[in-house]
Every structure is written in structure tokens, then in C-alpha cells.
């Protein structure tokens, strides 16, 4: 199982014992927030995309959405999610448990700026009923990337909410 692969991977930081497994599904932002009793925005969802250079993961806050213009400006291509039936083969984890840990070789991982407003977030751990609470520094280290991107919209103080508060 992928959760066992993640557990083994996280042992190098003695973080494997921090994985939480639930009796209920945490496969979506809403379900994970319910299982963890937290705001959905603190769920670190991991989105999988195909690019000309291979597969990538973008880890973003639960309330963020991919901004196609920002994505294209950063990656030089239109955002194209990997079809659900192909995610496990290409990434190493099935939909509902995709996370930035113990992924297939060659998969690049990026962390979106939408996460930085939180002290801790909850990414999945390879199964549809697991999560771990991590600081941003831990997320950077455990995911093997220090590369932050700004490819999302709809979170925090976006332009619409800023305009609304100015009135």
C-alpha cells in the first residue's frame, strides 16, 4: 500500500509516527477537514499535472484553485491534470491519497504560495484516509522541494474580496 511506502519514507525524519489514519474517508478537502476537525483551507491538496517535461505535483491550500494564466506563465503550458485512471501509475499514489511524499522518480513537486499563510497544514499520506500535520519547513523538507510557485487563485485576499472591503 502507498501509505506504507509513505510511512517508510517519513521514517528518515522520525515523522512516520505522526501519520493519522481515520475510520472515515479523507479523500477530498471537505472530507479531510471533517476528519481533522479543521478549516478546509488548511488541507494541503496535491494536484497532479502533465507537462512536456513530465509529471508534476502542485501542493496548494484547500481553498485555492489553479489560475490558468499563472500556471501557463510559470510552466509554459496549459494546466492539464492527469486523468484519474492514470494518476497512480504516473505519480505513485491513487487519487484521494496523492501526496508529495515517496512519489515516483522524476515527478517534480512544487508548493503553492497559498499555503504560506498557515503555521501548519495537513497533506495526505498515500491513502484516502490519512494525513499528517506539518509546518511549512517540514513540508519543504519532507517533499524534497524548496520550490514555491504562485499558480493559484481564490484564496485569502484575492482582488474581488479586496475590492469588496474597500467599499
From TrEMBL:
Gene3D superfamilies assigned to the protein according to its UniProt record, in alphabetical order: YbaK/aminoacyl-tRNA synthetase-associated domain
Pfam family, one: tRNA_edit
Superkingdom in the source lineage: Bacteria
Domain YbaK/aminoacyl-tRNA synthetase-associated as annotated: residue spans: 27-141
InterPro entries: YbaK/aa-tRNA-synt-asso_dom_sf, YbaK/aa-tRNA-synth-assoc-dom
Single GO molecular function: aminoacyl-tRNA deacylase activity
Protein name (database record): EBSC protein
